[in-house]
Amino acid sequence: MTKRRIELYCGYAYSNLLRYVGSNQIYSNFTSVLNRYLHGKMQHIPNLITLLNLVAGFIAITLAANGDLANASWFILVAMILDFLDGFAARLLKAYSAIGKELDSLADMVSFGIAPALIMYKLLSDLEPSVLPGLSVSREAMVILLIIIPPLFSICAALRLAKFNIDPSQSISFRGLPTPAGALAVISVVIAAHYSDSSIIKSFMASPTALAVYTIILSLLMVSRIPMLSLKVRALGFADNKGRYLLAALVLASFIVFRISAAPLIIPLYIIVSFISRLF
């Protein structure tokens, strides 16, 4: 083969390569494979956040078991933030999956069903039999409260999560108090009692009857069919978020006035705003 012929063959091969690259076929194939790879990896991001929620719940349980209820409450709050972020990440990345839905419920059961119930158990077990006006609590009654009240909260949380998973109507609004809201109602009184000097909250925390009634009400609200405001924000416009902005304004005003003592008011305000939103 002569030198001239070799040059012709090389020139022909080079021109074909330029036409192939110019057609963007290599580029499109490469970007297609890369996008599929990255999408497959990003599908796991919401699940990873969900598992971090589970870890936070586990840490809360270990802290509560050792009597550190304040820090246990903070870790439940961390789990709530992660619970919000996993849903946000799933919507942002369009990474919905059946396993993600199941993982979310399992993590929520640990963080918002078991951990708050254990906190309530520790609160009740640390109290001496006491008397509310007209309501006495004997030592035998305290044992019954410890056997019934904390498990009741966990049972109702499990039922609430199971009902949520099979009820497609709850994608926009909730039926019954969400489990994170029930957990927030428990930890808010712990945090307020730990960081404030409110005599009302101290008296409430010292009363086994008050704690028992409070837990029963929260448990029943979780399994009720009462319409509740969904806090999922799909747009920032005022017209679609009147209830959410009203709730945020009321909570902010409460904290400005009462500071940390306002923490137990969050869930009552949430329930009130839910009723108002339902009416209007």
Can you give a write-up of this model?
With 280 residues, the protein is mainly α. It folds into 2 domains: 1-42; 43-234, CDP-alcohol phosphotransferase transmembrane (TM) domain (Four Helix Bundle (Hemerythrin (Met), subunit A), Up-down Bundle), CATH 1.20.120. It has 11 helices and 4 strands. It has helices at residues 3-22, 25-42, 45-65, 69-93, 98-125, 139-166, 179-195, 199-205, 208-222, 242-258, 266-279, and strands at 131-132, 135-136, 174-175, 227-228. A two-stranded antiparallel sheet has the order 1-2. The longest helix has 28 residues, at 98-125. The termini are far apart.
Quick structural overview:
By secondary structure, the protein is mostly helical. Helices cover 75% and strands 3% of the residues. The longest helix is centred in the middle third of the chain and has 28 residues, at 98-125.
Tell me the structural class.
mainly alpha
The name of the CATH superfamily of the largest domain reads CDP-alcohol phosphotransferase transmembrane (TM) domain
Helix content: over 70%
Please tell me how large the radius of gyration is.
27 Å
Q: Report the sheet with the most strands, covering strand number, pairing sense and barrel closure.
A: 2 strands, antiparallel
Helix count equals 11
Reading off the top of the CATH hierarchy, the class of the largest domain is best stated as Mainly Alpha
Number of domains: 2
Instruction: Report the β-strand fraction as a percent range.
Output: under 5%
Mean pLDDT: 81
Secondary-structure element order, as H and E? HHHHHEEHEHHHEHH
Give me the count of strands: 4
Poorly predicted regions are none
The dominant shape is globular
